[in-house]
Amino acid sequence: MLCQALRRFGKKMVRKHPLELPVAETAPARSLSTLDLVVLGVGNTLGVSVYILAGEVARDQSGPSLMICILVAGLTSVLAGLCYGEISARIPHSGSAYLYSYVTVGELWAFISGWFLIITTFAHMGLSLVTKTLTLVKVLVLGFVIISGFLKGDLHNWKLTEDDYIKAGLNDTSSMGLLGSGGFVPFGFQGILRGSVTCVFAFTGFNIIVTRVELAQNPKCSIPKSIMISLFICFLVHFGVSAALTLMVPYYQLQPGSTLPEAFLHIGWVPAYHFVSFGFFCSLFTKVFGNMFPIRQQVYMMAKDGLLFPVLARIQTGTYMPILATMIIFIVATIMTFFLGFTDLLELRSVGALLVFTLLAFIVLILRNEAQVQEENEGNEADVQEENRPAAESLTLQTLFFPGNPTPTALSGWVVSVCSSLLALLLTLLCLVLARWPVLLSGDPVWITVVVLLLLLITGITGVIWRQPQSSSPIHFKVPGLPLLPLLSIFLNIYLMMQMTAGTWALLARSLKPTSLRAKTIDLELSRASTYLV
């Protein structure tokens, strides 16, 4: 009896959601070009974070090496963008990591990724002239900041010493931050890692592009292209703003909670302060009036699928909006803003984004080696179950490294799924050990042996995945260098997450309490209207 209950519960955790083709009468018009999607991605990513994040990270975590933090965070986001690009090309349906998880790896991971997206998604809707105008204003203002920083900045601020710190303390009556060791990297390698985690938040807005797949003119081509172009533009802007800020103001003189316009007050350029403040308020305007739509849509989708309380999916007559879900989101967001500090909110959103990025890389490994593309399986659940049964083929050591079929089979897909799960576990253990890198540098033979063994296991399992046949489906974009790039993405994401403070993990654990509640009540739910793939 208990075994049957556990088996039934396990099936519910891994069941998949079928993709539904849009009905011709209700399908939205495909009107968005690649340029429209790029504007949407850039406008959503370059939000208020670019005006506040740089000063917060430079003061306490990285100093002038903030540019390196932006580079690491940008690399992490680019790898995630590559994964988003291939998944959106294979599954051309409007959604997010929640939908991609639901149709590939099952209900449990869909709930987790959806909950993380609710925490981390603060995006704005808008494809109107107003949005394009505000995006142009923000880019122009930030371009002015970059040029001004190089004109009015001082390279000496990248090589500050203790004498400069003492002199600044005599002339500055406001509170100053820590000096650290001075120079370009005042807080060491650890400071760069901590700053990189926080800077991931600066790139989390690009995922709004995948929510517009069904509006794109050529989604299989334009979605991956617009993601990469948006990330490249945002990286250049963030990198330039970071350099300009640290050139204009010594990092220890940046005030807690100060915004980018205040840097111009430090150099006595008041007109520029007002001009940059205008760009800041443009960003604030687009966020305040637009950030409710994607979160509300995410909650509605999860409630409709039964992963959140069904009452959150109720549509108000006349407005056609989930009013109750909107009100609850607004209340929760207000409470979080009131009780949590700015740094806590940044880290909470960053760790949620990193977890979603990790799941995306895992999904790419699964999709590339699946026996049959998910969207081709619609409406034939029995055939899918029969085909995906690995018992039909024999598993030997030879088939691991020399599979007999040139195309993916049920067995090869099962092997990749198991190996990918093992790699995720081994990479987590490796990152836990590498988090003690000062001990490794001391030459402790025990830790060095552990690292070597983990690297050997990771290399061997990676070789198994590499030898498995991959899908030859003709799509416009594929992640290059599979399985190395997805595994590099998983490693970077997990290693950066290891730099989070215990307080951030406690906040994240507290936010995931509804998971246990849903697990306790899932067996009591009535059958749903939609069908699922077991």
Structural class: mainly alpha
Q: So, the CATH homologous superfamily of the largest domain?
A: Amino acid/polyamine transporter I
- Average the pLDDT over all residues and give the rounded result: 76
* Helix and strand element order: HHHHHHHHHHHHHHHHHHHHHHH
Sketch the major β-sheet: none
The number of helical runs is 23
Question: For the terminal residues, how far apart are their CA atoms?
Answer: 21 Å
CATH architecture of the largest domain: Up-down Bundle
Percent of residues in beta strands: under 5%
Low-confidence stretches: 21-27, 122-130, 373-391, 514-534
Quaternary structure type = single chain
- Which percent bin holds the helix content? 55-70%
CATH class of the largest domain reads Mainly Alpha
Shape: globular
CATH fold name of the largest domain, please? Amino acid/polyamine transporter I
Radius of gyration: 24 Å
Number of domains: 2
Extended strand count: 0
Describe the protein.
With 534 residues, this protein is mainly alpha-helical. The chain folds into two domains: 27-345, Amino acid/polyamine transporter I (Up-down Bundle), CATH 1.20.1740; 366-374 and 393-512, no CATH class. The chain is built from 23 helices and no strands. It has helices spanning 2-14, 34-45, 49-62, 66-90, 97-104, 107-120, 129-152, 162-171, 188-199, 219-248, 262-266, 270-290, 292-304, 323-339, 342-368, 381-387, 397-401, 410-434, 437-441, 445-467, 484-497, 502-511, 513-521. Helix 2 runs parallel beside helix 10 (219-248) and helix 15 (342-368) runs antiparallel to helix 21 (484-497). The longest helix is centred in the middle third of the chain and has 30 residues, at 219-248. The radius of gyration is 24 Å and the shape is globular. Residues 21-27, 122-130, 373-391 and 514-534 have low confidence and may be disordered. Pfam families: AA_permease_2 (PF13520), AA_permease_C (PF13906). The chain crosses the membrane at residues 37-54, 66-87, 99-122, 134-151, 227-252, 264-286, 321-341, 348-367, 411-434, 446-466, 486-508. It comes from Nyctereutes procyonoides. It is found in: Endomembrane system.
